[in-house]
Amino acid sequence: MKQFFKFVFASMLGFFLSAIVVTILFFAIVGAIISSASSDEGKTASANSVMHIELDFPILERTTKNPLQGIGPFGDKKAVGLNDILENIKKAKTDDNIKGLYLDVSNLSAGQASIEEIRNALLDFKKSKKFIISYSEVYTQAAYYLASVADKVYLNPEGMLEFKGFHSELTFFKGTLDKLEIEPQVIKVGTYKSAVEPFILDKMSPANREQVTSFMGSMYDHFLTQISSSRKIPKDSLFAIANDLKVQNAQEAVKYHLADALKYKDEVLDELKRRAGSDVKKDVKSVNITDYNGSDDDDEKSGDRSTRIAVVYANGEIVGGEGDDETIGSERISRAIRKARMDDKVKAIVLRVNSPGGSALASDVIWREVVLTKKVKPIVVSMGDVAASGGYYIACAADSIFAQPNTITGSIGVFGIIPNMQKFFNNKLGITFDGVKTGKFADLGSTTRPLTDAERMIIQNEVNHIYDSFTKKVAAGRKKDQAYINSIGQGRVWSGSQAVSNGLVDKLGDINYAIRSAAKMAKVTDYKVSSYPEMKSPLQSFLGDSGDKVKTYFAKLQFGEQYGYYQQLKNALQFTGVQTRMPYTISIK
Fold this sequence. Notes:
Strands 8, 12, 14, 15, 16, 18, 19 and 20 form an eight-stranded mixed beta sheet that branches. The chain is an alpha/beta fold. The radius of gyration is 26 Å and the shape is globular. Helices cover 44% and strands 18% of the residues. The chain has a domain at 49-163 and 247-288: 2-enoyl-CoA Hydratase, Chain A, domain 1, CATH 3.90.226. Helix 11 (330-342) packs parallel to helix 12.
């Protein structure tokens, strides 16, 4: 009996201690949220300062309202969205206290079009005649592309500068699915619509290899052209340097003029002090771009507060329902476009699209709002890293479409996947199924048996119908024949530069170019920029997303670099409805 009470007491003590810890943690979190909500002001720079740009965090379209950033599952580091990065560089250009920029971008994590926008902002900054110094122990190709605009590119004497050309590696799951005895039943339209290939093939199809070679070649040509312009090295020479891997150590990076000199960090810091005019015996006066007093969602641009240009951010996969700040929910984005359309103060709308696509139905819901808006006020599209398949669907009706040369777009095609998991359940798990139905097709779409020929034909007809509707809408929006759209469609992926040539995109330009264009179409010169949809408050973000973020955090810890493969396979097995989605997760290194 004594032992019994001992265990009961220990259990009660453990419970109360846990309750106390949870309570303390809860109030700490609430305090962080309240603190974040009440003070979002950034730092100002003191005299003779240098802005430190260290982009070692995932760059999203907009800065998230996450009061728990820096706490494990809720974000390892304080992150700033592309919108504020661009705004802060712009403000630094005219801030007399900031004498120059220090680029420290060894761990750059961003898409190529996002890097392009930051690079263009740095080029604009240089017009102020202020300096830009770049230093790193290791430059990846993406980091070097950004750093190449600097007045001086410095490399650690024992460091490395990667310059070897682009490559893109695809992951195929057919072997895994075969072992699990899961049959992906594929119905698609489009020769190049290769979204399904990772699940039915063990290597790239000839058509897919052709398209990847084409758009990656276009992006690589732009990469070399821009570095050639900044570093004053002939493009042919750059191609040869990369092709023959001539830069294999730090000394060779200087020999071939990719870097200006080899220096240790203390030497770079001394140079920053001299250039900024600060005391060489003291630390460098600096302000980090993540802490700098950048833009505010409610006050992003000075101007006539009664005249506005709305920027609607559509970021992530396209899904039905509300979505969140990292997915495009058809209800939430449609409501945001509708709200901006019905606001008399809003004279034009910029739809910022950064999406690989998703649900065909959800894409059509958003497309409808773009069409309605076009009838009453200008609406233009600014494409980010990727605006393809469903991402292009929601863009095609706009008055004008702008993209970066290295934006990934197109992929006008449709597919559906219904996994047949009968053998997996039967042979691997010993599970069988039986039931009754009142109609021949009552269980259409079941994953516990193979499709019949009649069912496959029904789904194929629906996929064909959606593709026909998709190409008609693109043809109407782009003022082209449907036959022509079909010829450049077929699920084929294009770079932004190629899309300008084939008419899917009007011009090359960044989001600010799109905003100016929208204002010009609306015939306004003095205006304020407003962002839609309204981002979730810190409390909403915590209460709504914390569980998913914790699960994702621990999944990443478990899988490491292989997490992306797990997520890709998991998503494929959860597809519902017909999809207008990118062929696969494209990663160009």
